Amino acid sequence: MFSLNEISATLRKAAVGSGFDVGRAQDIAAAGCWLISSGYDGAGAVLKAIEAGPQPISFDGENSHFQNVHVASCGLAAVDIVEGSERFVVSYNPLDVPELLLGFVGVASAANDNDYTIAFGSKGGVLLCVEPDTSLDDFFGDKAAKMTLWTVRQGVVISKDDQISQEDEHRMDLETWVKLLDLAQKTYVPASEASRLSGAGAGLVDND
Amino acid sequence: MAEVKHEADYNEAPLREPSDVMRLERMGSFFPTRLSFMRTLMRRLSGEGSKVSRPVFDMDDEGYGRAVYSVDVGGKTYSLVAFSIKLDPNDRTDRVIAEAWDTSYALYDGVPTKEEVDRLEANVPHQEAGRCCAKDLILSRANKSVRLFEHVVDCLSKGEQPDMAQIDEIGYLMRTTAVYGNGKFGIADRTRICEREGLSGPFQAEMLTVWLIRGFTHDLANHVAAKRGGDKAVALSDDIKRHLGIGNSTGLGMAPFLVSHPVLINSWMLVRETALARVRAVDALDAATSQRVLQLAERVTRHLDQWNVVDERQMKRIEVVRGEWADIGPQITLDALAQPYPYEHLLSLAKNGSTECQELMVALVLEPNGDLIDGLEECMATPYDMRLDPSISVGVLCAFIKDKMDWALSLDFEQTKETAQFWYVSEEKLEPRLGLRFEEEGAELEMPLDIARRVQALYRDMEKVDQNQIMAEFLLAHPHHRYAVKRAQTMERFPYSEIQDNLISERCLPIDMLRCKLSFFGASKFDPKSDRWTRITLYQGAPLFHELSTERADDWWLPALETG
Fold this sequence. Notes:
The complex is a heterodimer.
Chain A: H1 4-17, H2 22-37, H3 42-50, E1 59-60, E2 65-66, H4 71-85, E3 89-91, H5 98-112, E4 115-120, E5 126-129, H6 137-140, E6 148-153, E7 156-157, H7 174-185, H8 193-198
Antiparallel strand pairs in A: 1-2, 3-5, 4-5, 4-6, 6-7
Helix pairs in contact in A: 1-2, 1-3, 1-7, 2-3, 2-5, 4-5
Chain B: H1 18-21, H2 24-27, H3 37-48, E1 52-59, E2 65-73, E3 76-84, E4 103-109, H4 114-123, E5 136-144, H5 146-157, H6 164-170, E6 172-180, H7 204-229, H8 238-243, E7 245-250, H9 255-260, H10 262-280, H11 287-306, H12 312-328, H13 334-337, H14 342-350, H15 355-366, H16 370-373, H17 394-404, H18 406-409, E8 421-425, E9 432-436, H19 451-463, H20 471-477, H21 482-493, H22 510-521, E10 524-528, E11 534-538
Parallel strand pairs in B: 6-7
Antiparallel strand pairs in B: 1-2, 2-3, 3-4, 4-5, 5-6, 7-11, 8-9, 10-11
Helix pairs in contact in B: 5-7, 11-12, 14-15, 17-19, 17-21, 19-21
């Protein structure tokens, strides 16, 4: 069993270890923890999303269209665009880890009280918006019945029965955890005798 | 029924500017105040009439075994579970890299059953290598001050009280080397207790743990002496016990906390500055308060006289303050305190002194003003955190940085002295360390404490783009600036959130950051052992377990032995 704080720290370090800058790594960790608190496999989602490292973000501003499929890189940007400009964003390609987008949205919604809707089309497209549009199906050429809709309000998924977990401890898949620790390990400086002696400025024995 | 005062009922002088307060030199000169976390906890326990019980004390003749202490806070019971083992002197190190300790502790949520104590005994003595659970709120360990512990036990066993000079010189029987909270190694997340009465303030659970540990160290010395001396043995006198606090060795691990919790630090600083602003607005003192100020000024003199350290830099600073106080002290008279705005007058006496002298006076003027400032500590915790606002335009953020973060823009990072150091986490037990960038390996893995450098880089890139772009658009092309944007936007909302100095320059002394944080804990007698770690004393002069209902419970600012 793990505390959320140690999971958060490990997710953040793992993201940095994968090459993400600390600003995004913090938000990726927060999204993972939001998913865990909401009953999802947030650690697994983060691991899958960060393993490829950061990818360039390709955004067509005129059409509000993300061409990326790597949610760790474009998901945060998508939520920023939606919150910052109050417009929708869309991707016509399937995201690599769509649940992490839900994590980003959950964190943002809890902080800014916006209601967000994520619509996953049956052919893989994703639309993210603040105000749900009645003609969502037009984006994907799907009928609404074939779409998966998520609505998040004040940090809580309200389109499903899920509620924020009140558990104090969280189980982790061991294999996932070990992989995350391996990535986190990349942020530590290898030990040396010199750093052992001088890096912390203290002696090695204290019998006074 | 007591009158409830609201914000508008208080007069306030202007707050000191963040550009004055949030400098390493000033932060490294802070003294504990009545708003420090240990003081607020003791006031709460005293107000609640809390009682400490000791349901388990199962120690052998040499003082090895287990003990449990329980206390009620805010209607809930918490228990310190303590373990004492025999430690090879070669293993006794205060550093994070240690793997064994004389004593180890957990603060348990409730009263543990024997099975729970067994579970804790299998894990707590191993600290980082053990595994705790959400019923365990705090994890800690402490090593003996071998010299003083043995002296005290030896004297008591012969029927004598220990030598006061040694008691005063060292000040503690044991020193903690870590007090872990908030989910470390499987213990409870702070969210478990953050809304509980009595533990909602910052570090209240940690401070409760340390106070209970202090009492345990007294009991342990008495126990070993009684077993060794038999009928001849005596118990420690209350006067000596009161002067025996808990030592603490604090290293670099504490410094990054001030940077990684900017909103929380803003709350601490803002409360402290608001308290000062209220006190500065007091226009007259009554006779009793004037007498109290005189008593406190005299205590300052004794405290400074009794504060001696080996560290040359700190000893010089103490000597400077002693000299300044020798001039200032005689000017603190009933006539001086009869002037309008007497606290402003006192602060003006220290205005031209050293920063340490100025901050000593700040702590002094806060002390007699509980009616004005107690309760502000409720604002020291915060539910907020850093957050990016993607709707802000580049132009607006540029203007803010230019206006309020000039301390970051004015630095020349091309000069090696401005980037001489780097903060890192060693793979060796994840010990935080500080390296020399141009001499040591590992700078590419440095921790993000280079806030000034990051903000400056952000500003330079923002200058090159359309000023009407919003942050969401700017970060599409500059995602690596996300952290710096958050920092700058956070400072805009929380003005005391940033240390306004370059934390990677050759000038940066981590000891200043340590002292700042430790002063908020309530630590005194800072005893730096280098520029990157210090020993301190916690709870020296604080009430003993049976003294919570006495006046002593809230009168132990700057502890000093009575002389003469």
